[in-house]
Amino acid sequence: MNAKILKILLKKEVSLIKRNPIIPRLIVGMPVLVMLIIPLVATLDVKNVEVVVVDNDRTELSRRMVADMDASEYLSVTGCYFSYDEAFRQVEEGEADAIVTIPKDYQKDLTNGEKPELDLKANGVNATKGTLGAQYATMSVANTVARWQAEQGVSLSAREFGTVNLYNPTLDFRNYMIPALMVVLLIIICGFLPTLNLVSEKESGTIEAMNVTPVGRLEFVLSKLIPYWAVGILVVTVGMLIGWLVYGLVPEGNIANIYLAAILFSLVMSGLGVFIANRSATILQSIFMMFAFIIVFQLMSGLFTPIASMPRWAQCITYAIPPRYFIEIMRSVYLKGATMTDLWVQYATLSVFALLFSLVAAMTYRKRA
Amino acid sequence: MKNAIDIQGLTKRYGKLVALDHVSLSISEGSLFGLIGPDGAGKTTLYQILTTLLSPDEGSATVMGLDVVKDYRKLRTEIGYMPEKFSLYPDLTVDENLHFFASLFGVNVKDNFDLIAPIFDQLQKFPNRRAGALSGGMKQKLALGCALIHRPKVLLLDEPTTGVDAVSRSEFWGMLATLREKGITILVSTSYMDEAERCERIALINKGRILDVDTPGRLIEGLDKNLYNASSKDMYPLLETLRTLPDVKDCYTFGATLHVVTNDDFNPDDAICKLRQEGLEDARIWPAKGNIEDLFIKLAKDDG
Question: Is B291 helix (H, G, I), strand (E, B) or coil?
Answer without folding.
Answer: coil
